[in-house]
Amino acid sequence: MSVYTEVGRDDLIAFLEDYAVGELVSFEGISEGIENTNYFVTTNQGQFVLTLFEQHEFDELAYFLEVMTFFHQHDVPSAHPAADKQGRYLKELCGRPATLVLRLSGQGIHTVATLAQCQVIGDVLGKMHLVGKEFTSHRETQRGLKWRQQSAEKLLPLLDKDLAELLRSELAFQTHYTKLDIPFGVTHSDLFRDNALFEGDDLKGIIDFYYACDEYLIYDLAVAINDWCIDENGLIEHQRYQALMMAYLQHRQLTETEQTSWNLVLRAAALRFWLSRLLDKHFPREGGLTHIKDPDAFLKILKQHRANEDKLK
């Protein structure tokens, strides 16, 4: 959540006139995250998050808002978009598609997650995958094999010899990723600690569904494991891993093929975020407030998965 598009007070006041949310009191840019422009907005009737979409066109965005509404309606604690006076979730502001989302209480986690927090995330992710079977809309992932290959082509000339060889080797290993015969469905695909708002160990809601797409369900699980359950060396930490996995498995047991594919999918999830962070580092976008995350964190995780044939345990 960064600020690439500056929003003036008068523009925001005019935007809010289409909503029954009261009068503007204050607003401030949010520096965390990397994709879209985000502001905290306070009115005399409530608190909201304003998002201006920097990478998506208008006709793409209905899917994300539908995902958010679906999970909210199925008792998954999650952010919910506010409708304007005509019942629309999506509008335009400063030349960008924009939406106003009810702000949840709580804070993202910026330290090591507790065992209880890992258990809660495993539980809610299992619920999402269970109820997600009823979700009927579809969106192809924008961070799949083709994107990884295209990203690698841009990055390879910028990497040293060893890293370039690692990247080529990993892409070759993942050639058959798209051909796995494992459960597929709607996923969050970005369920990091800063996208789950907690008060202590109490989850208040999941946010930032703007990478939601159709993917392998265990890819969603792997993304979470790679953030919630990793130690400073990039290794899976056993206790947090067990807490998250056991809670998840209460809702959905994994197939034999999912279990044998686990290392491959963990590596695919690690590669995706290593590449995206490398792109942000080498090809930064201009913004008033931006937050670029360290690609080396996911390089370390990827190396550990390559060296350790991670088994479901």
> Would you tell me which CATH topology of the largest domain applies?
Aminoglycoside 3'-phosphotransferase, Chain: A, domain 2
Arithmetic mean of pLDDT: 93
Structural class given helices, strands, pairing? alpha+beta
Query: Would you state the CATH class of the largest domain?
Result: Alpha Beta
Shape: globular
What does the radius of gyration come to? Answer: 20 Å
Q: Span from first to last CA?
A: 35 Å
Helix content percent band: 40-55%
* Total count of domains: 2
Describe the structure.
This protein is α+β, with helices and mostly antiparallel strands. It is built from 10 helices and 9 strands. The protein has a 5-stranded antiparallel sheet, covered by helices on one side. Strands 6-9 form a two-stranded antiparallel ribbon. A two-stranded antiparallel sheet has the order 7-8. α3 packs antiparallel against α6 (217-228) and α4 packs antiparallel against α5. It starts with 8 loop residues before the first helix and ends in a 6-residue tail after the last helix.
